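Much of the work behind modern protein science is quiet bookkeeping, done one molecule at a time. The fold becomes a row of whole numbers, each drawn from a learned catalogue of backbone shapes. The protein below has been through that process, and both of its lines are reproduced in full.
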Amino acid sequence: MNDISDSDKPDQRPSLWRHAPLAAILSVAVLGAFTLGDLINFDTLRDNREALLAFRDANFAGLALAFIAIYIVIVAFSLPGAAVASVTGGFLFGLGLGTVFNVLSASLGAFAIFWAARLGLGQTLAARIETSDGTLKRLKNGLHDNEISVLFLMRLVPAVPFFVANLLPALVGVCFVNFALTTVLGIIPGAIVFTWIGVGLGEVFDRGERPDLSLLWEPQVLAPILGLCLLAALPLVIKALRGRKDI
């Protein structure tokens, strides 16, 4: 009996350690939700904008690297302030570079969440679904047949939280290449909008106002995004019309 229990220990420890990255992300996310909400906001940006602009002019590369690193941490640990960071990218670096930095940072942060979940809980859950014969396995097979379309829809539909769009695909075992491709391309429309708001942020602050993120729900902004959603859903509709059993 002792030999059996001793031989089991080396197998159990790696299994537990695989869950450590995701557990750390969830723990920091909960802690950050209660401690950082009042720190990462537009008031903080307004109060420090002169110092940030001066530092940018003196050390552009340094500020760019710091911005990307901070944004990656915000996304990877699902901390509050992602919208503020995106707008800040436009405020500090303009529409072109700001969009590039925003997409790069958000994508790398999303990849971090994906792999933290995939290497831990995702392996366990995917294995269990694979060995099952019920509805979950049918849904998983349907998802794998339509990965690109479904992943694009998750990125483009405004109602899907960014954290969910990062975590759920890892838990059901989607291909990382498809996840990465749809993440980078799928967040570009929203990144452009947030960055564009940031470009005019200085004038907003000068008027003593706060940026109006309700612009995201204006018809001229929402309509093109919904149009992209329809394009992403088109392969699913075509397959359904052909009588295939897909999700």
User: Anything to note?
Assistant: The two ends are 48 Å apart (CA to CA).
